[in-house]
Amino acid sequence: MNKNKDNLSFRFAEYAQRAILYEAVLTPKPGLVDAVDSGSHNDMDIFTFIDSAANLYRGFYLYAKAGLECEGSEKELFSSIRKIGIDVEKEMFKATKNINTHKGINFSMGIVLAAAGYYLRDKDADEHIILTSSDTSEILNTVKIMTEGLVKRDFENIRKKEKLTHGEKLYLEKGFSGIRGEAESGFPTVENTSLPRLRELYHVHMSTEQKLLDVLFHIMSVSDDSNIVNRGGLEALEFVKKISREFLESGIIHEEGCNEKILEMNGLFVEKNISPGGSADLLSITIFFGLLESVLESSLKKIK
After folding, report:
1. Which residues pair with 129 in a beta bridge?
2. What is the mean pLDDT of residues 28-37?
């Protein structure tokens, strides 16, 4: 592996780690762990997330490296990184004492990192890269090719299993394909909703915290978040989408009472045991691309 690609792998890993840390410390968030509150989670706090995020860096590097070094097809790449993912997940659980902090983002970010590496493997790019929006679209299209048929393959034999995961139960009971379906479609929530919104906000005079909260609520207003359905059913999902739309339409994100309104919402989410964890993962993916596109403050240069 040449030096440029090695440095690029490190840069991708850095941006991925920054993305999940940005999401973790973003405060306040309804139903989610943030810097001062554990939301609907009584088994973890912000320190659990920091321990986990620190542990994921090596795996993020390996995902990116796998994409940059891949000489086979996109599907062969996906097969190879699933093996990496199993090891990364084991190390995460060691770091958190078996608490599931980042299982979902390990899956999603791993695919995105590998796809980004694969897309850039033959391009004249180094660690000082800035992506264009068309580069991002190509990377997400690579994700589609990598994961084609994923839902069918992963769920075709689950009726024979004695013990099902939460995702498998949701698929059987409600037809929810969860994060697998989102990945197989090339993360459409990111491409069509959250990332365009983040780009729009680039020149808007708002704090990073306000921008990311705005983007999070845009995600929550449209995402079929399986974490929410798993905890509260379809009724909870519709509740989250409705309350998120109302929050955005009120324009309160630009007003002084914004945090108080979110804290009020957090109380409702905790009462209903709602955690939009899937939406949080999509926010992390959005932040990752936002950093690469330099729409979250950066001074890097474009691909040649």
Report:
1. 301
2. 96
Q: CA 117, 10, 12: angle at the middle one, nearest 5?
A: 50
Q: How many residues does the chain have?
A: 304
pTM: predicted TM-score of the whole model, two decimal places = 0.93
Output the CA–CA distances (angstroms, integers) from residue 251 to 37, 45, 73, 248, in the order listed.
24, 30, 46, 6
| Structure-token match 């990311």, residue found | 212
How many whole angstroms separate alpha carbon 263 and alpha carbon 239?
16
- Number of neighbours of residue 103 by Cβ within 10 angstroms: 18
Write the pLDDT tens digit of every residue in 195-207: 999 999 998 988 9
Look up residue 302 and give its DSSP letter: E
User: Where does 38-179 show beta strands of DSSP type E?
Assistant: 129-130
pLDDT tens digits, 114-167 = 999 999 999 888 788 899 999 999 999 999 999 999 998 888 878 777 777 777
Pair 223, 279: CB distance under 8 Å: yes
Question: Using an 8 Å Cβ cutoff, are 296 and 198 in contact?
Answer: yes
Beta bridge partners of 301: 129
Amino acid identity, position 292 = L
With DSSP H G I counted as helix, E B as strand and the rest as coil, what are the percentages for the chain, rounded to 5? 70, 0, 25
What is the average pLDDT value for the chain, to the nearest integer? 92
113, amino acid identity: L
